[in-house]
Every structure is written in structure tokens, then in C-alpha cells.
Specification:
By secondary structure, this protein is of the alpha/beta class. It folds into 2 domains: about 5-90, Chemotaxis receptor methyltransferase CheR, N-terminal domain (Chemotaxis Receptor Methyltransferase Cher, domain 1, Orthogonal Bundle); about 100-290, Vaccinia Virus protein VP39 (Rossmann fold, 3-Layer(aba) Sandwich). The chain has helices at about 25-40, 45-60, 65-75, 80-90, 100-120, 135-145, 165-175, 185-190, 205-210, 240-250, and strands spanning about 5, 15, 125-130, 155-160, 175, 195, 200-205, 210-215, 230-235, 255-265, 280, 285-290. Strands 8-4-3-9-10-12-11 form a 7-stranded mixed sheet. The chain has a 3-stranded antiparallel sheet with strand order 5-7-6. The chain is globular and about 65 Å long. The model is unreliable at about 1-10 (pLDDT under 50).
């Protein structure tokens, strides 16, 4: 079992005692890569976590030190492993209808006027940012179909994005182990899921028709041109420094229709210039105001 070693000013000293050499210089390089690639801040207190998560990758690759691992992920052939490194250091905790009050709010307060708009020929767009393996966008899609069974035939779409291509691929597959559906209401399961021969559960074609899965780095360029009626970005900003969080909220604001909803994680708060652009409308639920970002 690894443990935190005494702090040392020498970059050659191990910061975690364990199977592999892991120096302060190694930790700084990994922290800088993760911050540059994904905006994730790794304070010194996360050294043990970094070691424990990445030690598995070193064993799989047959490496003997984090210095060698850093050389690999920064090399010309290191892109695939660099993505695996980022995936190992981020927590893809998700489940269907996680934080149910958000989906109650979506179904009862946000969707009814959007359904009327769609039936009148209008456009409806919802974005699941940092969608992980897809449970969140499928929960959104089930909420939509519960009010509008013909939604796939209308101009109604859910954009689902994540930085991890493996998570995006899982979402596109739309099949899950049965125990992962515990949060799905029984009626929804009956209507929009089906058991497969291998024991997995597949999401219905009506759900899949509503969702587009794409890779997207939230601190990178955003190709979307249109506006959204609701954005889910939950339990992501907590990994960012305050400045990056503030920039994220400020980027979301002009993409949300006036009166549109923003759903964030239970430990997150909107801060920075975007504060004036949102008003609270429930627990960690906000509505876009008409105020400009200053």
C-alpha cells in the first residue's frame, strides 16, 4: 500500500512510497498535462491518488518508473496512452436519473412549453455536457418521450458530449448491465428498454434517435452554433480552478435561450461574470436571464 512521503524540495525524491519511482517532477509533469489537456487541477494532496490510479497503467505497460511513463505520454506515439491517463484520473461516476430533482424540474417545468413549440414546428435542443457513458442523456431522452412520444419525428435533439472517447463509444452503444438501470422508473424500463441475449439491456431506438454523441473538450473549442433550451453540466466544474469554472459558466450563458435551464452538480456554484446571467430556480438549477455577460 502506498503512503505519502515527507515533503522534500528535491525533485528527485519520491513523493509517494510504492512499487514505482514517483518523484515531485513526475507529479508536476502529469499535473501540467492534465491541466493543459482538460483544465483539471491536481493539487499536491492528490499525489497519492495520481500514483494509485496510474500505477495500474505502468503495470499494464511493463514500465518501471513514472519518469518512463511521462516520456511515453509526451512522445509522438503517446496520444492513446495520454487519453487512457486522463480517463484513469477522472471519475466517471454516473447513473440514470442521478439527482432526480433535476429531472423532475426538466419534466414538470422546462419541457411542457418546449413540447408545445416542437409540435408547432419549432426547434428544441438540450445539451448533456460531460455525458460520461450516456446515462444522463438517455435519462433526458426518456423524460422527453414521457411527454412527447413522437419527439423523434420532430425537431427535438439531445447533444451528448464527453472528453473521453471510450465513454462516448459506450453511450453510442446504448447497452448497459441490468443493475445499472436501478434508477429508471419501471414504466420507463418497460417502454424503452429491452433485454438482450447476453444479459445486457439495450436502450430503445426511439431514445437513440434523439441523441447525438460526440467527443468534446469543455476547455477547448466548441463547434455548436445554435442555442440550447437546457444544459446539463453536473459534477464537472469541481475539478477546475475558480478561474476555469468562471470561464465555463460565461461560455454556457450565451448558448442558453433566455428562460432556458442550466443544471449543475450539488457541490458546484455559478461564479464570476456569469452570475448576473442566471437566477436560481431550484436546488442547483438555474434559469438564463436576459442580462448580458459583463
Amino acid at each position: 500500500m502506498s503512503s505519502v512521503a515527507p515533503t522534500s524540495p528535491r525533485t528527485g525524491a519520491n513523493v509517494v512510497d510504492g512499487e514505482f519511482a514517483f518523484t515531485e517532477a513526475d507529479f508536476r509533469r502529469i499535473s501540467a498535462m492534465v491541466h493543459g489537456d482538460a483544465g483539471i487541477h491536481l493539487p499536491d494532496a492528490k499525489a497519492t491518488l495520481v500514483y494509485s490510479r496510474l500505477a495500474k497503467r505502468l503495470r499494464a505497460l511493463g514500465l518501471t518508473s513514472f519518469k518512463d511513463y511521462c516520456a511515453l505520454v509526451t512522445g509522438a506515439d503517446g496520444l492513446d496512452e495520454r487519453q487512457k491517463m486522463l480517463a484513469a484520473l477522472t471519475t466517471n461516476v454516473t447513473r440514470f436519473f442521478r439527482e432526480p430533482h433535476h429531472f423532475d424540474h426538466l419534466r414538470d417545468r422546462v419541457l411542457p412549453p418546449l413540447v408545445d413549440r416542437a409540435r408547432a414546428g419549432g426547434r428544441v435542443r438540450i445539451w448533456s455536457a460531460a455525458c460520461s457513458s450516456g446515462q444522463e442523456p438517455f435519462s433526458i431522452a426518456m423524460s422527453i418521450l414521457s411527454l412527447m412520444p413522437d419527439a423523434p419525428e420532430r425537431d427535438v435533439r439531445v447533444l451528448a458530449t464527453d472528453i473521453d472517447p471510450n465513454m462516448v463509444a459506450e453511450g453510442r452503444r446504448g447497452t448497459y448491465a441490468p443493475h445499472l438501470l436501478e434508477g429508471v422508473p419501471a414504466e420507463y424500463r418497460r417502454r424503452w428498454t429491452s433485454a438482450q441475449a447476453d444479459g445486457s439491456v439495450k436502450m430503445a431506438d426511439e431514445l437513440r434517435a434523439l441523441i447525438t454523441f460526440n467527443e468534446l473538450n469543455l476547455i477547448g473549442d466548441w463547434p455548436m452554433k445554435g442555442m440550447f433550451d437546457a444544459i446539463f453540466c453536473r459534477n464537472v466544474a469541481i475539478y477546475f480552478e475558480d478561474e476555469t469554472q468562471a470561464r465555463l459558466w460565461s461560455r454556457f450563458a450565451p448558448l442558453i435561450q433566455p428562460g432556458g435551464a442550466l443544471y449543475i452538480g450539488h457541490s458546484e456554484r455559478i461564479q464570476g461574470p456569469a452570475v448576473a446571467a442566471f437566477r436560481p430556480d431550484g436546488v442547483t438549477t438555474y434559469r438564463r436571464t436576459a442580462e448580458p455577460i459583463r
